[in-house]
Each structure stands twice: as C-alpha cells, then as structure tokens.
Amino acid sequence: MSESLQVQLKKGVLEMCVLALLSKGDNYAYEIASQMADAVGMGEGTIYPLMRRMQNDDLVSTYLQESASGPPRKYYKLTKAGAAALKAQRADWDAFEQAVAKILGDAS
After folding, report:
1. Cβ–Cβ < 8 Å for 76, 98
2. What is the pLDDT of residues 50-59, one digit of tens each?
3. CB-hemisphere CA count at 13 Å for 5?
4. How far apart are CA 32 and CA 75, in angstroms?
5. Rounded CA gap, 58 and 83, in Å?
C-alpha cells in the first residue's frame, strides 16, 4: 500500500478509533497516542490537536487525576455526544467497508 493511501486512511478513521478506545474507559492523551501508534502507526503529535478539537465538539470531557509518577494527568472521558458520534461513525465505516469489499470482490 502506498504511503499516501495509508496517510489518508489513517486520517479518515483517527477520530473513530480514539472514540472507540475511550468507549472502553477514560484515558490520558499520551496513553491514547501510544495505543494508536502501536495499532496503526499514528504519530504522537497528531493526538493533542485531535483531543482539543474533540473536546471543543463536546465528544469528550476532561478531568485531572493525580499521578504517582509526576504532575496530575488530564484524562479524557467519552460524552453522550461522543458515544453517539462513535455509533454513527461505526455504522458509516461498516457500510463503507462492505461497499469496498463488494467492489474488490467483483474485481477479482
């Protein structure tokens, strides 16, 4: 797969993936970035602007929690709007994935 295609695919699903991670439990940005880097090779610098935008869009809320290894950490929590956005994005993804699979299957 070309690097350009990989970049575009990652951009297209980044928010959905972060929402999915947060649906499993609250987390802080560095840990979310680490999980995304391990799963899809996303760079750490991408997560912070995304988290700010998602907070501004009321998809996530934040709170501070004390840390044993340094200053308090800013945790992100999925809001009701974020859960609804995840559900809608997942439905869109599933439909898109099926359409692409059908086309690819027809091309074989």
Report:
1. no
2. 999 999 999 9
3. 2
4. 10
5. 11
